[in-house]
Amino acid sequence: MLPEKIHLEIVTPERRVLERDVDEVILPGSEGSFGVLPGHAPMLSGLSAGVAVARGGGEDVVMAISAGYAEVDASHVIVVAETCETADEIDEQRAEAKVKELEEEVASNSETDPEIVRLRMLKHIARIRASKGKY
Questions:
Q1: Confidence at 51, pLDDT banded by 50, 70, 90
Q2: What are the sequence ranges of the domains in the chain?
């Protein structure tokens, strides 16, 4: 018999961001976003910077997640991420300013590795999207 809910736990090195039973989880996998429903096959996935969503009880909790990993089984999802912020915790103006700053850094041909700048930019773009509820 399939479980009716999934127990979701999201942690970072600083805190436990979310722990609750949900109907569905959407995560930004390293190979693309994926959804998890009750009864999902066991898997381990790397996560990239992006928007995550926890759906349950008629509400969506939208979050910005940076790199990490997710361990999934039929009734549990455990996410360990470098950073994770819920939409209401994000300062959208600060995230937009950070993206602009990084764009200027790339345009100035600085010594910074472009891949590092790209990854940092993806993190802040995810923060902007999450703060607007876009996923």
A1: very high
A2: 6-87, 91-131
Q: What separation in angstroms does the CA of 76 have from each of 25, 53, 98, 99?
A: 10, 15, 35, 34
Bridge-based pairing state of the strands 32-36 and 68-72: unpaired
9 has which bridge partners?
Answer: 19, 78
pLDDT tens for residues 58-94? 999 999 999 999 999 999 999 999 999 999 999 999 9
Tokens 């909790």, residue? 61
Q: CA-CA distances (angstroms) from residue 50 to 44, 57, 58, 60?
A: 17, 23, 22, 16
pLDDT in tens, 15-36: 999 999 999 999 999 999 999 9
DSSP 57: T
Distance CA 43, CA 68 (A): 14
Q: Provide the 3-class DSSP secondary structure of residue 55.
A: strand
Check if CATH label 3.40.50.10490 holds for domain 6-87.
Answer: no
Q: What is the spatial distance between Cα 51 and Cα 41, in angstroms, rounded to a whole number?
A: 22
φ/ψ of 4, rounded to 5, equals: -85, -25
